[in-house]
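During the no-cost extension, the postdoctoral fellow (Dr. R.K.) reprocessed legacy sequence entries with the updated structure-token encoder. One reprocessed record is reproduced below for audit purposes.
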Amino acid sequence: MRCRWTLLAHQARPCVLLTKRNSPMPANLHDSFSRTISYLRISLTDQCNLRCLYCRSITGEEQLARLDLLSFAEIMRVVRVAVGLGIAKVRLTGGEPLVRAGVASFVRELAAIPGLAEIRLTTNGVLLAPMAAELYQAGVRKLNISLDSLKRQRFAEITGGDCFERVWAGIEEARRIGFAPIKINVVVMAGVNDDEVVDFARLAFDQPLHVRFIEFMPIGSGNAWAESRYLPASQIRARLESAFGALAPLSSHKLDGPARLFAMPGAQGTIGFISPLSDHFCDTCNRLRLTSAGKLRSCLLTDRETDIKSILRGGGSDQEIEALILATIREKPKGHSLVETGVIGSCHGQMSRIGG
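Re-encoded structure tokens follow.
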């Protein structure tokens, strides 16, 4: 399949704690387990111009109708309320966020919200090169780009689209314009692309790119996840240390994501490991998710969701939106379902709707 360039028109727990600051900045928002919640990930659309093994169902699935997606105005309203509660960072995801028309204008509006410290974007990079300048001007400075192979044919096999050159052109254009950091997200699958982990790490030597190795996760009931394809982060790290020597741990910023970060001697960039199965980061999870279907989700790997779209479209007040956000945070589990039950494949949410 060639690359598609479609644009869319368009358990009882303690209360959530709000800790006031001595400044005009929003309150600190804490969940029932004293984790600070500061990060909202927003899936702008479930549509995508690729069909990756670990995301899309291999059995096929219906995409959301246009009217079922939250409008930009509805998303803006949720973000304004969330920032007032203490959310400081927003990440735009999908599906593929850049297939939704008007995304740069939407970013510009987001950037004007007082108290919102960061707007980040996760993209597959296919449409990035022609849109990078406008996104930068709108207010995005930090990018995560999904790239699961450095080999054109293998890239096509993993993603369903012969788009490697376009993705690499997007990375180069983002570097030229000045996005920083640029993180490369690699979902590592045994027997599929695990032989490339050393090659990916070399990117951090040659350029100021930050490579993040992500464990293959069992999300959805019909994707290509299989236990035989799972490779724990410890084994990926061992391969890198065999090639480059010991990795030096790095500290992370409080708004950063779940990656455990490391430096390699002489490298311009860094290495990170995201290990939700082998060494989960639930104890420090700081995020909520707003799905493209208009649901709030407090955990990627737990299927519990709350419907915020019905409030937005039913004449609900900002106070009702605030109450639903706080209720979702109050119900945020201590750990994801794979930790609680040990059942692989117990998360049935559709990744393209939840947001990568």
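Residues 16 and 327 are 8 Å apart (CA to CA). Residues 17-354 form a domain with the TIM Barrel fold (CATH 3.20.20.70). The remaining legacy entries will be reprocessed before the final report is submitted.
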